[in-house]
Amino acid sequence: xxxxxxxILYSEKDIENIxxxxxxxxxxxxxxxxxxxxxxxxxSVAFMVDLMRKVNLDFSIDFIVxxxxxxxxxxxxxxxxxxDISQSVEGKDILxxxxxxxxxxxxxxxxxxxKAKKAxxxxxxxxxxxxxxxxxxxxxxxxxxxxxxxxxxGYGLDYDEKYRNLPYVGVLKPSVYS
Length: 178
Ligand code: PRP
Ligand code: MN
Ligand code: MG
Fold this sequence. Notes:
It contains 4 helices and 9 strands, in the order E-H-E-H-E-E-E-H-E-E-E-E-H. The two termini are 21 Å apart. 34% of the residues are buried. It has a 6-stranded mixed β-sheet with strand order 4-3-2-5-6-7. The protein has a single domain (11-151), classed as Rossmann fold (3-Layer(aba) Sandwich), CATH 3.40.50. The chain is globular. The chain has helices at 12-29, 45-52, 105-116, 174-177, and strands spanning 5-10, 35-41, 60-67, 80-83, 93-101, 121-129, 142-146, 152-153, 169-172. Belongs to the purine/pyrimidine phosphoribosyltransferase family. Its main location: cytoplasm. Pfam families: Pribosyltran (PF00156). Its EC number is 2.4.2.8.
């Protein structure tokens, strides 16, 4: 285990099971749809590549690079799009893939943004849902696991751009950020 990790919350195997469950639900719901799976980078990087390979349907993928946290542990509330989606979303069903929903500000902003670009539907898929600090009123369509209000890292999730490469998800030692 990495020296900065206090405890592991989800092992590689745990995550694999969650991904498989969500993939099956998506297969069922999107069976007859022409959809785009849109990963929100950078946090969704690991989840996106694992999830898309488990969904046995025809669809395209795309990415939006957006962030609101910078180097802090609390949402700034301002969402920056650093790289936009590379295709038209007009009339398309969009499935947004996110690593974690916390305040909900990021997803609220991105959902409205894609709807303004005339997407036919926008659904949200997140690996982790942290409802304790929710600010925005958003509806999550697919959620892997509910997590307590602890700062977690790994499997795409960072603190100050580190720990994204850990294959598991763990709680960061408070001494690292205090
Ligand atoms: C994190 C995470 C989500 C968002 C969730 O992204 O990946 O996108 O915050 O928080 P919210 O619900 O409070 O908006 P971050 O801004 O850290 O960028 P990153 O994906 O590049 O790490
Ligand atoms: Mn993110
Ligand atoms: Mg981040």
